[in-house]
Amino acid sequence: DGGLADFGHPCFPVDEMLEGLDRVLAAIESEAALHEMGRFMTRNFLLRLLEVRLQLMALLRADPGLLDEPIEAPLFVAGAPRTGTTLLHALLAADPERRAPLGWELLRPVPPPDPDPGRRARDPRIELVENELTLPQTVVSGLLSIHVYGARQPKECLSAMSFSFRSEEFTARYHVPSYERWLFREADLRPAYAMHRLVLQVLQRRMGRARWTLKSPVHLHSLAQLEATYPDARVAITHRDPATMLASLTSLVAHLRCAHIDVVDAAALAQ
């Protein structure tokens, strides 16, 4: 990517990145059973993560003060999946005094968004991200009716964690039980939250301090790490009947995986 070659930084050791990358690559290759289109989309997904990781580290070396950018009192929506988190997040994000990161900003945050609304609306990254987010919807019928994805839509902030390769984004897309065991039982998630914070710092670097409204069910697994990263955070937790939630979540994950593999065992997925 433009001659960049260093995936690490003293605050973001490359060994931490490589541990997650090695584990997810091994699991995808040996367990995920991707079809040809699935391999194509996965290759592009992983290359985008690596490209942006390079860009983030290069930006941090060029602008060391970036880490001093304050992220003040962020509000997180962190209920279980399929409990109305997207609806609540959209409602809270409608507050003109607050800011919710958009899909294109989370997937391609470098360089920091232009403060001019007109130039920002014409950013070429929007089309790149729109193509990436809508491709699975064209491969799998019905996905769009379950969950809306788009470059200009507010998006779950777990995408910022994926640049550390410690993210549930991989476990949702792929059948990767060995990576899933490592992520939930062994992995240190502090690098993922450090990356999450860095992405927010990049996004507000040129546009001024923001009152962030963020959302992802993944934070329920790691509220201690979230609080350590954002001591003044507030968390809204939504609720829904567990049986109904489970059926809805199984349907969503099954559709996501159908974009990458030929057969999904929904009963096993629910289990």
What does this protein look like?
The chain is mainly alpha-helical and 271 residues long. The chain contains 14 helices and 3 strands. It has helices spanning 14-31, 36-62, 85-93, 103-107, 117-121, 125-139, 143-146, 158-161, 168-173, 177-186, 190-204, 223-229, 242-258, 266-270; strands at 75-77, 213-215, 234-236. It has a 3-stranded parallel sheet with strand order 2-1-3, with helices on one face. Helix 1 (14-31) packs antiparallel against helix 10. The mean pLDDT is 92.
Compact description:
This protein is mainly α and 271 residues long. The protein is 54% helix and 3% strand.
Please render the helix and strand layout as text.
Elements: H1 14-31, H2 36-62, E1 75-77, H3 85-93, H4 103-107, H5 117-121, H6 125-139, H7 143-146, H8 158-161, H9 168-173, H10 177-186, H11 190-204, E2 213-215, H12 223-229, E3 234-236, H13 242-258, H14 266-270
Parallel strand pairs: 1-2, 1-3
Major sheet: size, sense and barrel closure?
Answer: 3 strands, parallel
Number of strands: 3
Helix content: 40-55%
Give the SSE order as H and E letters. Answer: HHEHHHHHHHHHEHEHH
Ends distance:
41 Å
The average pLDDT value, as a whole number, equals 92
Give the strand order, joined by hyphens, for the main sheet. Answer: 2-1-3
Tell me the number of helical segments per DSSP (H or I, 4 or more residues long). Answer: 14
Which blocks of ≥5 consecutive residues have pLDDT under 50? Answer: none
Shape: globular
